[in-house]
Structures are given as structure tokens and as C-alpha cells.
Design brief:
about 425 residues, mainly alpha, Growth Hormone, Chain: A
């Protein structure tokens, strides 16, 4: 317990570079959705498609993001993290180029599915690499840094998307996405070291992967954390997929104004992630996660009340949306650290299963908010409120069943205290 963790053995410069690359990889999914959000109404008009059809391109991306992790994690456990990640990034670049010239909404939807699967490599593999390097509170801190960096993506992406829409039309955001993904590919190829030595890689192929996933499924603690995350993502994805249509069509805001509102929420997520990083020195990830889930559920309920009554107009939704998005800065790192710390010996597969189920189930929110072909404030608010309450209830049940769980610290300066973090 007194030895430095693998991550601590790197120089400070190398640690900073790795964190920046991990954070950048996490932003790919955000950029792929957030760049396009301001352009969705324009894309519907240009392609002669319904709002629900264009929103389906976000749904298929998120489904791909979930499915892709089920591939990326197990493959990286057997083939290594770095080469698997490079393959995923190459596919991402190609699909971004195809989206630029997509002639129809059907082609766009198909490409977005493949693009989501490729983007999943940028989520699952960094998660597994963090677990290769650290455990417990140190892992939570690393995840917090990643989320802080990832929180910049919505801030930049939405504003950039609005400007690219103005300059190049609805295809403009995909031009920016192509450039971003090429930069990510170069950074990984040049500066990201392999974290999984050959002697620790798993063998046995698909059979071993399925056996590992079956074992994870039987772990009630792991599945409790996973489905808590799935409900959180259902609420968050309802916001992502519906807020553009609600604010622009129902409340009449411009794409630029919507981008500003979206960016403000991203600032909240960034600030919450920074606060979470600092608070982890005093509070456990589970305590901070509980507080964030309570705030999520309360904000979702308040937003639903406003949508049903019309109280406070635009701000009746904008303020709850801010609380919900900001809360993700705490929920994402702490929930991920708690779940993956349970099974560090199969970090890639656990990360893939955790992320795949969470995102795949969360993506179900997208078609539900567009039932009938039109997305409304009420449909979005109902989904967010229901998801927030369900996430809080499931986490409370899981936490009660894991009261005796002891996840010990890895940081050498704190190890002697033997403090449980969960």
C-alpha cells in the first residue's frame, strides 16, 4: 500500500499530457452531439425530414456509443489499449467525412450509428486506462480531471456549431468534427503510452468476454451502479436531444441564443467537476454522488412543473436544465469510479459493459420524447423528471446493500489511514 501507484510514477509533464489526452478523447462524443445540436432544425429543413427523423440521428449515435463500448473494452483487454484506440479513431474520422456529404437523412442516421461506435473507443478505453493506473479516490480524482476537461467541450462545441451553421450550413459542424478527430488521432499516436502490459492481457476471445460479462451481471452492486447511470443518462439525453427544438421552436430563441444557454450549462458542469475534485479530499465519492442525484431529481421535478403550468416561461426550464447538466460534473466521475473499482482485474470489459448498458439504455429517451413526431417541453420534462427520480431510488437501494463495501485508497500519502471511500 505504501508504493506509488502506476500513474504517480510518471513525470508531472507526462501525467498532465495523459490527462489532457483522456479528456480530449472524452470530448469526441460531446463534440459529435453538441456541434450538431444548433443545426438540427436547419438539417431537418434542408433534408426534407421531420424533427423526429433528425433527432433519430442523435439516437443512433448514442446507441452506437453504447454498442461500441461492448466491442472496445474486451478487444482492448486482449489486444492492448493503444492500438485498439487508434483503430476506433480512424473509423471516426472516416464517418465524419461521410457525414459532410450525406445526401439524405437515412445516410446521416446510418453514418451516425457507425460514428457512435467509433466514438465509444474514446470513452471505454480511457476509462479502462485510468483503472490500469489507479484505484479508489485516486481514480475518482483522475476521472474528475477528465470530466473537467470534457466539460469544456459543450461550452466550445455549441458556440462553434452555431458559427459553423452560419458559415457553411448544417454540414458545417461535421467539418469541425473532422478536424477535431484528426487532432485526437495524432495526439494518441504520438503521445499516449500503452497502459496494459502484454502479460496482463486476457486471452480466450469471445468466450472469456461473455463469461466475464455474465459475472458482472451477477454482481448486484455493479449492476445497481450501472442502471443508476442508465437512468441518469436517459434524463441527460432527453435534454440533449430535445432542448434545441424546445427552445428554438417552442420559445422562439435563435440558434446563437440557444448555443449561449447550452454553453452556460457547460460552464456549470465544468465548475461542478472542479468542485468535485476538491471535495473528494474530504468526502467519499458515494456521498457526493448521493447529493448530486438528489439535486438532479429535484431539478427534473421543478422543470416538469414549469412545463405543465407554463410558470416562469423559458427560465422555468433553463434553470432546472442548468442544475441537471452541472450535476453531471459530479455524477459521471464518482459513479464511474465506484463501479469500475469493483472489478479492476477486467477493467476494459467492465468499462465497456458499464458504459454500453448505461448509454444504450439511456438512448431510449430520444425516441420517447419525440413520440408523435414533435418534441415538446412537456415530453422532455416528463422524461427528465422520471429518470431523475428512478436514478435516485435505485442508487439509494444499491447504497444500502453496499454499506459495508470497503474500497481502500491507493494514494501513498493517504494509504496508512485505511479510509473507506465507498
Amino acid at each position: 500500500m505504501g508504493a506509488a501507484s502506476p500513474f504517480e510514477r510518471f513525470t508531472s509533464g507526462r501525467r498532465a499530457a495523459i490527462i489532457l489526452i483522456f479528456g480530449g478523447l472524452w470530448t469526441l462524443g460531446s463534440f459529435a452531439t453538441d456541434l450538431f445540436l444548433p443545426a438540427m432544425p436547419a438539417a431537418a429543413d434542408a433534408l426534407g425530414a421531420s424533427e423526429a427523423a433528425v433527432a433519430l440521428s442523435v439516437t443512433t449515435f448514442l446507441i452506437g456509443l453504447g454498442l461500441g463500448q461492448l466491442i472496445a473494452g474486451p478487444v482492448s483487454d486482449g489486444r492492448g489499449r493503444r492500438p485498439t484506440l487508434i483503430v476506433g479513431l480512424v473509423v471516426f474520422v472516416v464517418t465524419a467525412l461521410v457525414c459532410i456529404v450525406a445526401p439524405s437523412v437515412e445516410v446521416l442516421i446510418t453514418m451516425r450509428l457507425i460514428q457512435g461506435m467509433a466514438a465509444a473507443f474514446g470513452l471505454a478505453i480511457p476509462n479502462a486506462m485510468v483503472t490500469d493506473y489507479a484505484r479508489g479516490r485516486e481514480a475518482a480524482r483522475l476521472f474528475s480531471w477528465i470530466v473537467i476537461i470534457g466539460g469544456v467541450a459543450p461550452l466550445v462545441a455549441s458556440l462553434t456549431g452555431a458559427q459553423m451553421l452560419r458559415l457553411l450550413g448544417w454540414r458545417g459542424p461535421f467539418v469541425a468534427l473532422t478536424a477535431i478527430s484528426i487532432i485526437a488521432l495524432v495526439c494518441v499516436a504520438l503521445w499516449l503510452p500503452e497502459s496494459l502490459p502484454r502479460e496482463r492481457r486476457l486471452t480466450g476471445g469471445l468466450r472469456t468476454t461473455l463469461r466475464t460479462m455474465a459475472g458482472l451481471t451477477r454482481d448486484g452492486r455493479f449492476m445497481g451502479y450501472t442502471f443508476t447511470g442508465a437512468f441518469v443518462y436517459m434524463g441527460f439525453f432527453a435534454y440533449l436531444g430535445g432542448s434545441s427544438f424546445v427552445f428554438q421552436h417552442q420559445y422562439g430563441v435563435t440558434p446563437t441564443t440557444y448555443s449561449v444557454l447550452f454553453a452556460v450549462n457547460a460552464v456549470g458542469m465544468l465548475a461542478a467537476g472542479q468542485a468535485n475534485h476538491r471535495l473528494l479530499a474530504r468526502f467519499s465519492p458515494r456521498s457526493l454522488l448521493a447529493a448530486a442525484l438528489i439535486a438532479f431529481a429535484v431539478a427534473g421535478t421543478a422543470g416538469l412543473a414549469s412545463a405543465l403550468t407554463g410558470a416562469f416561461g423559458l427560465w422555468g426550464l433553463a434553470v432546472p436544465f442548468f442544475v441537471i447538466v452541472a450535476g453531471m460534473g459530479v455524477i459521471l466521475p464518482d459513479l464511474t469510479a465506484l463501479a469500475l473499482s469493483l472489478h479492476p482485474e477486467v477493467a476494459g470489459t467492465a468499462s465497456a459493459y458499464f458504459g454500453g448498458l448505461r448509454l444504450g439504455l439511456g438512448a431510449l429517451a430520444m425516441p420517447l420524447i419525440g413520440i408523435g413526431g414533435t418534441i415538446t417541453a412537456t415530453s422532455v420534462a416528463i422524461m427528465i423528471a422520471a429518470a431523475g427520480i428512478a436514478a435516485l431510488a435505485l442508487f439509494a437501494f444499491t447504497a444500502r446493500g453496499t454499506r459495508d463495501q470497503q474500497v481502500l485508497l491507493d494514494l501513498p500519502e493517504e494509504a496508512s489511514s485505511d479510509v473507506p471511500i465507498a
